């Protein structure tokens, strides 16, 4: 069987801002897809193309077959009732852009190479979709935690609580993403062989 291109880690770009401004108090999510073309007529050439044309991680300069860019944002408003300051509305937004490869020779590929590509590209898409889902879950968690913050006599101190809560949720998000990548990387070969066997069985 031709060599199977290895799945590289994702690119994670994270920006979080919480500002004091009115909002509707609901988590807003937005997901988009981008594609880049790869050539190659063999598995090894495909691997080279993914290494050459895949999205680049700015921190390391290395390229990856798939990537998910994540951007958090949002707003928090504060209201004073009596001698206490409360969180009025809290809105957290998360935008994800999933970058995936598109093989320009798929239609003319041999049956075996086409099977390998379909299996690999589907797994890359599933992997990146999961990164986007992790981000959405943490955005919802953050919004709930911000709304549940106890009031304070000083709005500046309440805003400091908002900042600490935001930082803690973002840190938990980063750890969950890294943990997911570690598990996926460890199980990659076994998962790909299982998926290939499943597709081969269905093709009979």
From TrEMBL:
<keyword id="KW-0732">Signal</keyword>
<feature type="signal peptide">
    <location>
        <begin position="1"/>
        <end position="20"/>
    </location>
</feature>
<protein>
    <submittedName>
        <fullName>DUF922 domain-containing Zn-dependent protease</fullName>
    </submittedName>
</protein>
<keyword id="KW-0378">Hydrolase</keyword>
<dbReference type="Pfam" id="PF06037">
    <property type="entry name" value="DUF922"/>
</dbReference>
<dbReference type="InterPro" id="IPR010321">
    <property type="entry name" value="DUF922"/>
</dbReference>
<dbReference type="GO" id="GO:0008233">
    <property type="term" value="F:peptidase activity"/>
</dbReference>
<dbReference type="GO" id="GO:0006508">
    <property type="term" value="P:proteolysis"/>
</dbReference>
<keyword id="KW-0645">Protease</keyword>
């Amino acid at each position: 069987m031709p060599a199977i291109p290895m799945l590289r880690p994702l690119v994670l770009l994270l920006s979080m801002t919480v500002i004091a401004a009115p909002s509707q108090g609901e988590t807003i999510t937005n997901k988009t897809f981008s594609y880049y073309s790869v050539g190659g007529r063999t598995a090894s050439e495909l691997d080279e193309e993914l290494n050459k044309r895949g999205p680049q991680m700015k921190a390391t300069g290395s390229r990856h077959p798939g990537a998910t860019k994540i951007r958090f944002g949002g707003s928090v408003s504060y209201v004073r009732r009596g001698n206490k300051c409360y969180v009025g509305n809290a809105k957290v937004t998360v935008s994800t852009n999933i970058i995936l490869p598109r093989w320009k020779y798929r239609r003319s590929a041999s049956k075996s190479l086409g099977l390998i590509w379909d299996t690999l590209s589907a797994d890359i898409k599933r992997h990146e979709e999961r990164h986007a889902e992790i981000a959405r879950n943490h955005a919802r968690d953050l919004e709930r935690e911000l709304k549940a913050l106890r009031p304070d006599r000083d709005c500046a101190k309440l805003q400091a609580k908002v900042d600490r809560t935001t930082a803690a949720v973002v840190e938990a998000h980063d750890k969950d993403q890294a943990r997911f990548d570690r598990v996926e990387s460890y199980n990659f070969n076994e998962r790909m062989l299982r998926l290939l066997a499943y597709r081969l069985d269905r093709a009979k």
